[in-house]
Amino acid sequence: MPRRPRSHRPRSQGELNEAARLADRLQQAGYTKRDIARIIGRDPSLVSQFYTKNKGAAFVTALRHVLAAVETGGITELPELASIAARHTTRRTTSSGARARVRSKAVLITPTGSGTGRVGAQAIASGSARLRPLIAEAARRGLRLAFTVRLAKTAYVHPSGSRTDSPGVRRDVIQRADHTEERSYGSAQTGGYGAADFARRVDATGGDVTAAVHQWLVETGRIRPGAQIIHLEVRTWRPR
After folding, report:
1. Residue 154 neighbours by CB under 8 Å, 6+ apart
2. Parallel, antiparallel, or unpaired for β 173-175 and 115-119?
């Protein structure tokens, strides 16, 4: 017998935890749950769990300061609000008082400088935040990097294999059946790009790796301004 779906009764304001109430006030000020996720540097699903799973205690102080900045300080830009939130975000503690572990992949760069990080559509939509530590660590070590992006074929300015675009050869292009295309930019053979430069770009966008890569691709004439990245991979290595 098929299981009947559960019906969830919407919680009243009095039943919401503090994080959810603060998120509600930010939404009343015009911000979406996705915006709030970008401000606190987390995935949008976590913001939804403020309401459904009573999460968010670690972000209450940060959200209070963000709300004050919006309501009394007149600050509205996401990068500025994210900077405020970062200064006031505290990690939750265990029953013994130790800092709780965060369930996320560690930044893994080998002694030779080799490292890889990939994100899909959901993480990309919230700024590919999990790639930021990889890029920052690569910059600290003076490494080089390359990246692969996947977009709709029509989003690219140049045809695949064009030497005006950095791949130049078709082996760096993967065409998908859904009319999207992956292109790789940079390699150990071509020298790649300085991780420090990309780290500065990421910092300039308030930690939004997706926006930093998109901006670089537009500035260098490789994709159209309205293009949407749907897959992103970053690779690092030590220069010879």
Report:
1. 179
2. unpaired
Please answer whether residues 181 and 171 qualify as being in contact, where contact means their C-beta atoms are separated by less than 8 angstroms.
Answer: no
- Those residues whose C-beta lies under 8 Å from the C-beta of residue 202, and which sit 6 or more positions away, are 132, 135, 136, 208, 209, 212
- Please give the chain's pLDDT, 240 residues, in tens: 334 444 344 455 557 899 999 999 999 999 999 889 888 888 788 899 999 999 998 899 999 999 998 988 888 888 788 888 888 876 555 555 555 554 444 467 888 888 888 888 778 887 888 898 999 999 999 999 999 999 999 999 988 777 777 554 444 577 777 889 988 888 888 889 999 999 999 999 988 999 999 999 999 999 999 999 999 999 999 988
37 class by beta-carbon count within 10 Å (0-12 exposed, 13-18 middle, 19+ buried): buried
Q: Please enumerate in sequence order all residues whose Cβ is within 8 A of that of 101, keeping only pairs 6 or more positions apart, or say none.
A: none
Tokens of 129: 């935040």
One-letter identity of residue 233: E
Query: What pTM did the predictor assign?
Result: 0.56
For residue 186, give both structure tokens: 């940079």
Helical axes 33-40 vs 44-52, angle rounded to 10° = 110
DSSP string over 49-113? HHHHS---GGGHHHHHHHHHHHHTS----HHHHHHHHHHT----B-TTSPBPPP-S------TT-
* Residue that is written with structure tokens 């987390």 in the block: 42
Site of tokens 């790009």: 193
- Please state, in angstroms and rounded to a whole number, the distance separating the CA atoms of residues 44 and 123: 9
- Token pair, residue 18, equals 């503090």
